[in-house]
Amino acid sequence: MTPSTTVRSPLRLYGRDDELATLENLLTLLRRGDGGALVLAAPPGLGRTALLRAAAETHRDRGPVLWATAASSERAVPYSGLRALLGSDVVGSGAAASDAGVATGAPAPGIARDALAGRLREFADGGPLLVCVDDAHAWDAASRAALTFEARRPGAGSRTTFLLSAADGTAFAGLPTLRLAPLDDAAASALLDRLTTGAEGLDPVVRAEILHDAGGNPRLLAALAGRLTPDQLAGRTPLPWPLPGGEAVLAAHAERLDDLPDRTRTLLLLAAAAQEHEPEGAGADALLLLRAGTRGGLPRAFLDRALFDGTGVGDLLQRAGSRVHFAHRLTARAVLHHAPWARRRAAHELLATLLTEAGDRGGADDSQVRDVPGLPGAPESRTARTTTARTTTARTTTARTTTARTTTAPPALPLAALVQRACAAPGPDAALAAGLEAAAVAPIPHAARSAALVRAALLSTGPALRAARFAAAAEQARLAGDPALARALLARTGPRPAGADPAAGPGTAAGPVRSGGAGPVADPAPADPVTASVHAGAITDLAPGLAPYVHGMLALRSGPVADAHEALLAAAALLAPHDHRRSLDALLGAAEAAWAAGDALGYLDAMGRLARTPAGEDLKDYPAGMSAVLEGRTAEGHARLRRCLAPGGDPGDPAALLRAGVAALVLGDIAAACRAGARALAAVRTAGPDTLLPQALEHLAYAELRAGRHAGARAHALEGLHAARRTGQPNSSAHLHAVLALAASVEGPAEVCAAHGEAALAGAAPHGLAQAVTLATWARARADLAAGRPGEAAARLAPLVKAGPGRGHFATRTLAVPCWVEAAVLDGRLSEESRALHAAVDEFAFWAARAADPGAPAQLARCRALLAPADEADARYAEALAHHEEAGGDFEQARTHLLYGQWLRRRRRTREARGPLRDALVGFQRCSARAWAERAAGELRAAGEPVPAPRRDTAGGPLARLTPQQQRIARCVAEGATNREVASRLSLSPRTVDHHLRNVFAALAIRSRTELARLLNP
């Protein structure tokens, strides 16, 4: 350790902008003569040294820098830290020590502090002094005390700032501390991109696995990426398991353990081992640790303090309710990595024994939790504490830790106990692997099943069985909502890399084993053949089809749906001889993918295969009915689909209920679709799986949109969007954004509709989601109509509904026809688009005649009224309004009233126009369609009926002096519309617009349209 005044510039620091700003502020104060101190506290690898070097480099040209790095080997040498910082001629031994006032063997703290202060003043004479000490926690106690004393003194008028880095802030209590957090996902991803610059390409699955394993630790991230070959980074060869490169970081984390008492190290080892059978991030069960520590001979008082009072183990462990967590994720891995194999194995075996005892006795009940001191309502009696120490583990707080049992043949050991035994296994163990596989069934959560199957794969003795179990683990990870892990596990279904030690997986703590349209695809039954079988042959038979099945299901929710379609068709063929139910699910998934892509032929092909495959009653009519409707055999199709509205089999099967909702929408029975969607959502919330929650919410929200319940649709779609993001389903996110855009096209504001529409298009286009594209485009066009921009609306909708390569989704484009007819007519395109408009209305009429949608006849009559000559239009509007009275639906009825009122006013039947326009205003207000209500209010004011102006015009703004008609014209012109476009929007003649615009210019004392735009849009 030597002092230095020259520090080289570090590489760019990712994700540390806030920390760098804090350091810059500290150095700015130093230059102004206001010294200070700051401790950068973080476990190894998070970049505290890099931040220290960045600060030193920034200050180097402004004043001297003293730099020292501590060495743990000198920690026992008194004042070795100060000698390293200031030089041995200032604080040392022999003559130098005597000159400085420090006696060898009997240091005088006061004199040492004076020597430190004096030398620092000498350095500060050359300018503002920055003192940097890296790993200051590793200094000897005397040097730390002297440094802490001196660092508390700077302030106004000081020319010295102390910048220290330490593993934690406890060694420098009283000094300001900045604690570093792991890098966020964006920063870690950017750093990984720089680290792999020059590589041929970083495979997305490899990227996700490296980022997850690094956990936001930049040093570990660099180490992991640096140890992989170009072929491994590109995904051409499988990754080793565990990923190599983390040994140095884990060793640095483990350095603190050497100075801890034996009982503390033992408890930390038990806590780290107890997390192995838990879902990732769940921590360890405090009661299990209490029993394990007691059984292991640790004092009860120490265990109470450490587990329930939060004292006795420093800041390494934290308690949250009945769970115990490590303060830093890597510390747990470091504890296991640092412990000798014999001690680690003993800890796992002890935990396995305790978990087995708990399973044999059915677990402990909730009352045992209250007997533990430190938990809510816990009595403090010695008797209660002793009873608790003998009771079994209570793992009843979450369903994730429920012990798997079946009524006929319960597994010999609970799953948690089997996982602990797997961690203690020295090598492959076929019997233990089979036991893990057999225990990984419902009601064990999918994440725990996946972790167990990974352990089983690592213990497997043959490559085929290992690959099959990795594929089964990938499926469970997908159902748990972790697609990144599922893809990583699928990547391991290939041959194991040469030289890999099959025994290293289960017992290696550093390994990344994580504990923790068409009809929807049914997830496998809880006791499916893959996870229930204890026979290696059963799971091996599934191996050829299981991996493509999981690949296809992942692509269906988060990739190109055309790829999903092909993968699932192939998987169905491979699975058919071995797993009939999953083969049916693959065909349903292929059909759903084709539906989302707008591929009618692909949908019919998948449904045809499904219809030819023997199936139960719940699937007999659905494929035949959907195919018949698409092929034009409407009566037959409707008859079959009506039988799907009350699905047989399990009444709580969410997939069957969602298929019933789809059938109801095709039939036009919107009320039945809403009921089926609500029941499906309840079923998913009750029994899962979580991966089906976004689809359940999407189906219900879309049915509510069709029913005119826009607020409910928005609420359910927002919840679905959060669920889709949480479970890694971007395709579902795109569909839900489209639903939200449709809701916002009614309720507003326009900016929200545009944002959701753009998000839907951005997610849908790369993955070929034609349905989402169609719905989002329709929503944007409807918002244009609400804002009085029919030209833009017509331009958006024309490609969707007209024949051509850009035509919209085969099942949803018809719903947009009424909006296109309205936009084209209001924009004055009736003469040039007459043929296409009449063809589109004929198609809509064909659909309306075969659907039971109660609103379809009214919308059809409205379209015909818009296209009819003047002498027929009146009767057509009356017909449309009569249909609305029968069907209900405030929004569509208000739109018809609005168009009828506009038509009457355009023909100068002003008095007659007021009634429909008044009804339109009330209808829009009733369904909270604000933009539409404003448009109706403007029309009503133009018809001569006073309507309160929008609040934005009543606060003394520039438009307050204009009439309502002039205000509307002024806004349109300020947006850049020409007189002809304004006339089209407001149902006026261009001459009338010109007349009003001249009056607007005069009233506002302006001369040009540019000045008007500046006035209204400052």
TrEMBL record:
Gene3D superfamilies: P-loop containing nucleotide triphosphate hydrolases, Winged helix-like DNA-binding domain superfamily/Winged helix DNA-binding domain. Residues 359-369 have a biased composition (Basic and acidic residues). One of its GO terms (molecular function) is DNA binding. The keyword Membrane does not apply. Pfam families: AAA_16, GerE. It comes from the Bacteria. Residues 384-407, 496-512, 520-529 have a biased composition (Low complexity). Keywords: DNA-binding. Signal peptide: none annotated. GO terms for biological process: regulation of DNA-templated transcription. This is AAA family ATPase. It comes from Streptomyces sp. JL1001.
